[in-house]
Specification:
505 residues, alpha+beta, 6-stranded antiparallel β-sheet, 17 helices, 35% helix
C-alpha cells in the first residue's frame, strides 16, 4: 500500500504535492519523496520518514517547476532502506520519473529480461524501479526524437503486455508532461481531477479522491483498468485504453481498511460502504445470536468507527468510545516488523475503565490479520473490568496473503490461516467472535456501484484475479515476508551499533 500524487500546474507545484502527500500519509509511513521539473531539469528529494520529517523549508525551496509527482511508501517485503524510496528516475530516454502503488507479481522475471535483453540495470529490490525501466524501454523502442501522445500510449500498452500484478502509476516525462496508468484489473485505486485557476486549467492524479478535495480539485473520475491518461505541459489531456482485455476487479480491502472514509473509489463512497458493513454485521448477529447480552459496542480506533456506529444503532445497543488513541503512533498494520508492532499496541491505545467495568462489551474492528493486536486489545478490555469481551470483524477471516501491494504477512502468520472461527476465537481470547460473511461484504461495496461485477478478495478466498499465482510464488513470498526476515535488518542494526559502542570503549 502506497500513495501517489501527480500535478501538472500553472505555478510551482511543490507545496501542493506536499499537501497531497500529507493527506495520503495513511497509505505509507516508511518513506516519502517529491520530484519536480521546470521542463529542463528534475529536482528530487526523498528519504525515510513521514512527509513532515522528510521535507523541510530548505528542501522545498529546491523543488522547482510547475509539474511534479510524489509518493508515500511502506515496504511490502520488509525492506526499509532509503534507497527504496520513490519516485525513481532514469535519464534515458528523455528523463523519466515514476511513482507506483501496487506490486508486480513477475518482477524477478522482468528484472532478468531487463538485464539480458534490454541492457538495463536495476539498482534496488523495488519492483517500482522495474516498472519504470520497462516503461522507459518501451518508450525508447518507439524510436522517436520527439514524442507524441500516441507514442506514450504505445509504451503503456507495452507495459501491459509485459507486466503482471497490480500497478497504479504516475510517470513524469521531462519536457512533455505526466502520464498516469493502471493495470488491466484496476486493483489499486487512482483518480484524477481538475482545478480552474487564473492562469488556466490544472490537473492532479492521486491514489484517493480525498487528496483532490483538500487541494480544491474537482474529481473527474477514476482511471479505468488498462487506461492511460496523458497530461501535457500546455494543459491538454488525452486518454486511451491500452490493454487488450481490461476488467474491473478493485481490491475490496481498500474499502475495509486501507482508504480514508472520506474517499470515493470507483464511484463508491468508502464511508457509506462501511456503514453498510455495520448493518450487515448487525443482521448476522440478530440472525445467529438473537438473545445476545451485549451491553455496549466499542470500536477499535479509527477505521472501524463507521461500521461500529451503524452496528450499534441497528442492534439498539449503546455505542461508546472506550479507547483513546495516541495520534503520534503509526498504524500497527503497516509497521515493518512484528517486534515493533507488538511494542506499539499499548502505546497507541488506552482504555477508559468506566466504559468497560462490569459490562458485556462487543469490540468492533475492521479486520483481524495476525491476531496479535486483537488479543492485546481484548486483554486491555478485561484489565479495564469488562465482564465478557466479544469481538466482531467488519471483514471476513483473512486467511491468505495479499500479493498486490498490501503487506499482509506470510500465510502461516495469519491467525485465521488453516483455523476455524472457534479456533481463532480461542487464539485471541475472546468470549465470542463474529466475522462478516463475504457475500455481505461484497454487497456492502457493490451497492454503491452496480456496474462492479468482480473484486479482488484474494485475502479471504485465496483466488487471485491475475491468475498467475501458484504454490511456488506463495512459498517465495512467505520466505520474504515472514517476521523473522523483517526483524533481521533490525537485529543487524542493533548488532552493528553494539560493535560500534564496543570499539569506542
Amino acid at each position: 500500500m502506497c500513495g501517489i500524487v501527480g500535478i501538472v500546474g500553472k505555478e510551482q507545484v511543490n507545496q501542493s504535492i506536499y499537501d497531497g502527500l500529507t493527506v495520503l500519509q495513511h497509505r505509507g509511513q516508511d518513506a516519502a519523496g517529491i520530484l519536480t521539473s521546470d521542463g529542463k531539469r528534475v529536482y528530487l528529494r526523498k528519504d525515510n520518514g513521514l512527509v513532515r520529517d522528510v521535507f523541510h523549508t530548505r528542501h522545498m525551496r529546491d523543488l522547482h517547476g510547475n509539474i511534479g509527482i510524489g509518493h508515500v511508501r511502506y515496504p511490502t517485503a520488509g525492506c526499509a532502506s532509503s534507497a527504496e524510496a520513490q519516485p525513481f528516475y532514469v535519464n534515458s530516454p528523455f528523463g523519466i520519473a515514476l511513482a507506483h502503488n501496487g506490486n508486480l507479481t513477475n518482477a524477478d522475471d522482468l528484472k532478468r529480461d531487463l538485464f539480458l535483453e534490454d541492457r538495463r540495470h536495476i539498482n534496488t529490490e523495488s519492483d517500482s524501479e522495474v516498472l519504470l525501466n520497462v516503461f522507459a524501454h518501451e518508450l525508447q523502442a518507439q524510436g522517436k526524437l520527439r514524442l507524441n501522445e500516441d507514442d506514450i500510449f504505445a509504451a503503456v500498452a507495452g507495459v501491459h503486455r509485459r507486466c503482471r500484478g497490480a500497478y497504479a502509476a504516475v510517470a513524469l516525462i521531462v519536457g512533455y508532461g505526466i502520464v498516469a496508468f493502471r493495470d488491466p484489473h484496476g486493483i489499486r485505486p487512482v483518480v484524477f481531477g481538475k482545478r480552474e485557476t487564473a492562469k488556466g486549467l490544472e490537473y492532479m492524479v492521486a491514489s484517493e479522491s480525498v487528496a483532490l478535495d483538500v487541494l480544491g480539485f474537482e474529481l473527474v473520475r477514476d482511471i479505468a483498468p488498462g487506461e492511460a491518461v496523458f497530461f501535457s505541459l500546455d494543459g491538454g489531456i488525452q486518454t486511451k485504453q491500452c490493454a487488450e482485455h481490461p476488467v474491473y476487479a478493485p481490491c475490496i480491502f481498500e474499502y475495509v481498511y486501507l482508504a480514508r472514509p472520506d474517499s470515493i473509489i470507483v464511484d463508491v463512497s468508502v464511508y457509506k460502504a462501511r456503514l453498510r458493513m455495520g448493518e450487515t454485521l448487525a443482521d448476522k448477529i440478530l440472525r445467529e445470536w438473537p438473545d445476545h447480552d451485549i451491553d455496549v459496542v466499542i470500536p477499535i480506533p479509527d477505521t472501524s468507527r463507521t461500521s461500529a456506529l451503524q452496528l450499534a444503532n441497528k442492534l439498539g445497543v449503546k455505542y461508546r468510545e472506550g479507547f483513546i488513541k495516541n495520534r503520534y503512533i503509526g498504524r500497527t498494520f503497516i509497521m515493518p516488523g512484528q517486534t515493533q508492532r507488538k511494542k506499539s499496541v499499548r502505546q497507541k491505545l488506552n482504555a477508559i475503565d468506566l466504559e468497560f467495568r462490569g459490562k458485556n462489551v462487543l469490540l468492533v474492528d475492521d479486520s483481524i490479520v495476525r491476531g496479535t493486536t486483537s488479543r492485546q486489545i481484548i486483554q486491555m478490555a478485561r484489565d479495564a473490568g469488562a465482564h465478557r469481551v466479544y469481538f466482531a470483524s467488519a471483514a471476513p477471516a483473512v486467511r491468505y496473503p495479499n500479493v498486490y501491494g498490501i503487506d499482509m504477512p506470510a500465510a502461516t502468520e495469519l491467525v485465521a490461516h488453516d483455523k476455524s472461527d472457534d479456533e481463532v476465537c480461542r487464539e485471541i481470547s475472546a468470549d465470542k467472535l463474529i466475522y462478516q460473511d463475504l457475500p455481505d461484504l461484497i454487497s456492502a461495496v457493490h451497492h454503491g456501484n452496480r456496474k462492479l461485477e468482480q473484486f479482488d478478495d484474494s485475502v479471504f478466498t485465496g483466488k487471485y484475479v491475475t491468475g498467475d499465482i501458484g504454490p511456488d510464488y506463495l512459498a517465495e513470498l512467505e520466505r520474504r515476508r515472514n517476521d523473522g526476515a523483517k526483524d533481521a535488518p533490525i537485529r543487524a542494526n542493533v548488532a552493528a551499533a553494539a560493535v560500534d559502542i564496543h570499539n569506542l570503549s
